[in-house]
Amino acid sequence: MTTIEIDMEALRRRYDEERDKRLRPDGASQYVGLTGRFAHYLDDPYQPVVDRPPVTDDVTFAFVGGGFSGLLVGARLKEAGVADVRIVDRAGDFGGTWYWNRYPGAMCDTASLVYLPLLEETGHMPSEKYAHGPEILEHCRRIGRHFGLYDHALFHTEVTGLEWDADRSRWVVTTDRGDRFTAQFVGIGTGPFPVPKLPGLEGIDDFEGHSFHTSRWDYAYTGGDASRTPMDRLPGKRLAISATRATPAPSGPGRAPGASPCPAGPGSSARTPPPR
Ligand SMILES: Cc1cc2nc3c(=O)[nH]c(=O)nc-3n(C[C@H](O)[C@H](O)[C@H](O)COP(=O)(O)OP(=O)(O)OC[C@H]3O[C@@H](n4cnc5c(N)ncnc54)[C@H](O)[C@@H]3O)c2cc1C
User: Fold this and answer.
1) Which atom of ligand 1 is nearest to the CA of 160?
2) Ligand 1 pocket: which residues have CB below 6 Å?
3) What is the average pLDDT across 30-40?
């Protein structure tokens, strides 16, 4: 049997060096705030916002965020007999990360059978070892349908306030759509990347070309779609991708160096599985 000597000190130093390369003294302030001329990076390119009257009722459980966290909590509550679970999300549907991140080739990098929740309960068998985004998004919708979570959900709605009303023993939940409803319990699962992060690139303030964030992929501009139809509107365009995290360039025709940035960063990191 061969014995392998490991220099633990050297290994630790190596990890420290790699970590230090990624630590920045400016921290989160390196990113550009999504206000003013950058506010459009928050817009939902996938579904139009539909008018609705404000909601003022009372529910047993309200949950902020309709990603895996909200779906799992909602499903388990339903199984436990709580009929009125309300999930609220800025997005137009369930999915969280997978609602927003529809860039070409997006896929999970944890094996689907481990990563996708509630497979047995919903009867879904993933089609790939590392499922692509559209399948994961559809699975989120399947969970929503299977557990009746659409019944009370509020989409395209941002929770702006949570206040405990001690007299009524209720949370008062307020939103950017004028809702003011109450809940006995509140849960929060707003995810690791609640908003896209724009890198503070020199020139981003006065860039006049077309730009978008990878978590709001603009297929109307690039052509193609999330199911990997070729991006047929790119040829002839000059394209730049700014990546602040593990963000491989998307594949597709017409990829060329130059302008038209697609800022990418934490909150939209384009992920691909590790080589196996
Ligand atoms: C491209 C990509 C690939 C990934 N792949 C993997 C993987 O393979 N394995 C892994 O373990 N992890 C992966 N992750 C991490 C991923 O974020 C988690 O796995 C998981 O999806 C997070 O679920 P969540 O419900 O906690 O948060 P999210 O999915 O981020 O959902 C949070 C939701 O909260 C909403 N929200 C936030 N604030 C408010 C508010 N005030 N009011 C209303 N709604 C609000 C947001 O709109 C969002 O929809 C990946 C992430 C990305 C971006």
Assistant:
1) 41
2) 64-70, 88-91, 96-97, 99, 101, 106, 108-110, 115, 158-159, 189-194, 269, 271
3) 90
